[in-house]
Specification:
- The structure holds two protein chains of two kinds.
- Chain A is α/β, with parallel strands linked by helices.
- Chain A has a single domain, classed as Cytidine Deaminase, domain 2.
- Chain A contains three helices and eight strands, in the order E-H-E-E-E-H-E-H-E-E-E.
- The N and C termini of chain A lie far apart (38 Å).
- By secondary structure, chain B is an alpha+beta fold.
- Chain B is built from two helices and six strands.
- Classes of the chains: A alpha/beta, B alpha+beta.
Chain lengths: 149, 98
Amino acid sequence: MSKPALKVREEMLRRIRAHGVETYPHECCGALLGSDGDGSREVIDLLPLANRRDDSPRNRFEVTPDDVRLAEKTARDKKLELIGWYHSHPDAPARPSEYDRDHAWPWYSYIIVSVQKGEPRDTTSWRLHDDRAAYDAEAIESVAHPAAI
Amino acid sequence: MAVKVIIPTPLRPYAGKQESVEVQAATVGEALAALTGKFGELKKHLFSEDGRLRSFVNVYVNDEDIRYLQKDQTAVKAGDTISIVPSIAGGSASCGEN
């Protein structure tokens, strides 16, 4: 069953893809900051993070508890919420692996960008099912940044 | 001993949407057992099928990681705060590395 679409500001999609290209052939990772409520979730800002899996960065990423706390504090400071995480799959599909599923937390949105030979390709989003057995696909709805008032 | 367990955001839907839960316990292990006894749906997200804490679940007693204390046997006293803090991990299925 699919979740309602995840709204993502165009600039954030561009930055996620750019981060994946920057770190290629290694995986990039970062936090998704935004809002969640009334059945609607929107990614408004990002916090790019260092991939702490320096032993296997081509196919693994890790965000440490200290970095999670940093992401939570950054969200609070910006009056936003920490609503999920993004990472890249170098030369692999933008689809959660078994390893992704085994290590995922529920509730968070997980954006994955496939970076093929240094070029960003598919960008998808996923949420772990309550029973941990599978992911629910989450459509990404690209939204324009509201005009500054 | 009454201790407070801080629930991380992704698990709050399974804990009555509460940010923290108070339980009676003498050790971290007892506190987590009391927590999952009260909120059964939390168990599979905190523990693997062999009953061990999942590797990406980090538990602190007053900001000290229990891995560097006595793990689930770490004693707690009245007024202590147990925090459950996520690590985030994942990756593609490519390569043969773990």
